[in-house]
């Protein structure tokens, strides 16, 4: 198993990606190919000890800035993203990981490896912790104006990911909506509901509409929405978690620390952060392209990169993309053509 | 100032609304008219002592169930909602409060008092606490498929509410979107951005796109979105606040209580809950109809009802609706006709 890591992607590249790669090699024994500035990467690697046969550098002369338009990024054929995805396309590697520019990773994936058969649009996803396990939410930003059949394709892809990579036996799929009952929603979700119901006849475990509260309720394993709504939900969650932790910390300090002096809250806050920390999940798949691609947060630390490499390897081992193509077929003519 | 309260609305009616009314009378000296089942309300009122001239019952023979379709609810001309809004229409009262069926309150408001001049669609709003003060979010569920000019009308109404009722000097208005830059977004928000920019030329303090994280950042006083996105954001927030408090509590107990024995976390948790508790805000206005209408959570406690009555009185005093009609005029031909 060989995972390519875009060593130039992320807010703290290449230091953090290289450290993450070294950790993945040491802990999981996964072979990693780093793409990026050869001199820089060599210097970074010298800081660590690791089994040297497990990390290889494939030079890339260019890098995509974090905020560059995907259309511009596409023109940088020598970028670490482009070089990395070409390796996967040529079967010289099994999966690709980047904490870089999400839009650029998607655009270059489409350009190099292309779409899966029957998938009109790839989706970006998020793995969110809930009280029981995790909720797989998609799309979270790739597709801001969707047709109902796009949502059904997201459902098929998300269901397969939850089953074959996250290990859910029979993932419960929900359609994000503003009420539980059939007939609720906007034009998009009302029409999508009908398609989801038809797919249920053919075996999709569609359990109905999910509401905003269900993203964290644990009542659904996969929740499907358009990329606009998903993006708002994701960014809202990330900020709210931080803000609530801050407020509660202030309150506890106000009531306790003055009285308890030396007693520190650190262990509780640390474990709390770990439970709500999306970095723990490493990254989330870009689904619908002909290669296992994992996109990590731009602010990922080494641990998140390490976990993303592990997830990428699981994705590759699972033969997920074959399952997705089969299911897209199985649930009928789902595309718009 | 006389506020009508739908005493049959909410999960624990009429007990909780009556208690809330008594508290509002005692604390704020506001006169309250209760609409609902006369016998039931008399019995409830007997439980409390209060200045009797300040609470009046206007009988209503019917009540709208919490989950009834608005179209059905409209036919109950004798409902506590209908009777209450008729009182406001006939100027026998100044404002209306209900913790009942939101869709029914909106439909019956449109049927009785009607829309403000220049407003195509009323909006339901939410007052959310942020790290500095509060964010006024609208629409949160009344309008799931919007046109760009609807969003601009929401902006005008929200800005006026933040200014004249919440007391913000120059409310910063944001358009909920998936990126900060102009040009980001779906078809709706891209077109709306152009309208908001044009309104900025005429004086609207439109500061740009807001992202999901900005709902709680304190960088905006008013955030505008369609009712689908707003509803998901609101329900997500409510559930996440509860879940995070629960997780953090577990973690703190795991790390501390075993060691500290009798030390209780109650004061900290209580203050925390108060800061994030939407009930503290009492309720949120239905904007765009020809009367001050406040809608409270179905699960409101007496304190939330009391605060809602206070907010309703402030709304009535502010002459908000006159300001809204002026501003809709000022910011140009904003409706779609």
UniProtKB/TrEMBL annotation, chains A, B:
Q: Which UniProt keywords apply?
A: Acyltransferase, Cytoplasm, Lipid biosynthesis, Lipid metabolism, Phospholipid biosynthesis, Phospholipid metabolism, Transferase
Question: What pathway or pathways are given for this protein in its record?
Answer: Lipid metabolism; phospholipid metabolism
The protein's location, in the record's own words, is:
Cytoplasm
The record's similarity note reads:
Belongs to the PlsX family.
Q: Tell me, what is an example of a GO biological process annotation in this record?
A: phospholipid biosynthetic process
Function field: Catalyzes the reversible formation of acyl-phosphate (acyl-PO(4)) from acyl-[acyl-carrier-protein] (acyl-ACP). This enzyme utilizes acyl-ACP as fatty acyl donor, but not acyl-CoA.
A Pfam family that the UniProt record links to this protein = FA_synthesis
Q: What is this protein called?
A: Phosphate acyltransferase
């Amino acid at each position: 198993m060989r995972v390519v890591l875009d060593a130039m992607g992320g807010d703290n590249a290449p230091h953090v990606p290289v450290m993450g790669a070294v950790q993945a090699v040491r802990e999981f024994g996964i072979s990693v190919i780093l793409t990026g500035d050869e001199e820089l990467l060599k210097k970074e690697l010298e800081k660590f000890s690791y089994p040297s046969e497990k990390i290889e550098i494939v030079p890339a002369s260019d890098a995509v800035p974090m905020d560059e338009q995907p259309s511009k990024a596409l023109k940088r054929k020598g970028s670490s993203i482009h070089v990395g995805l070409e390796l996967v396309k040529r079967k010289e590697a099994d999966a690709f990981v980047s904490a870089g520019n999400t839009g650029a990773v998607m655009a270059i994936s489409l350009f190099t490896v292309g779409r899966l058969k029957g998938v009109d649009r790839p989706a970006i996803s998020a793995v969110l912790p809930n009280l029981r396990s995790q909720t797989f939410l998609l799309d979270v930003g790739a597709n801001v104006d969707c047709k109902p059949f796009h949502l059904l394709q997201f459902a098929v892809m998300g269901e397969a990911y939850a089953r074959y990579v996250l290990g859910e036996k029979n993932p419960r799929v929900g359609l994000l909506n503003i009420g539980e009952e059939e007939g609720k929603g906007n034009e998009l979700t009302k029409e999508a509901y009908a398609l989801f119901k038809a797919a249920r006849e053919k075996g999709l475990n569609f359990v109905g509409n999910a509401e905003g509260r269900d993203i964290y309720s644990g009542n659904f394993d996969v929740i499907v929405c358009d990329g606009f709504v998903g993006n708002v939900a994701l960014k809202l969650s990330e900020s709210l978690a931080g803000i609530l932790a801050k407020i509660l910390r202030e309150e506890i300090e106000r009531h306790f620390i003055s009285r308890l002096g030396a007693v520190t809250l650190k262990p509780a806050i640390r474990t709390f952060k770990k439970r709500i920390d999306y970095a723990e999940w490493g990254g989330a798949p870009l689904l619908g392209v002909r290669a296992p691609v994992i996109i990590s947060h731009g602010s990922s630390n080494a641990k998140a990169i390490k976990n993303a490499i592990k997830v990428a390897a699981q994705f590759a081992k699972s033969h997920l993309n074959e399952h997705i193509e089969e299911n897209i077929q199985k649930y009928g003519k789902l595309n718009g053509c």
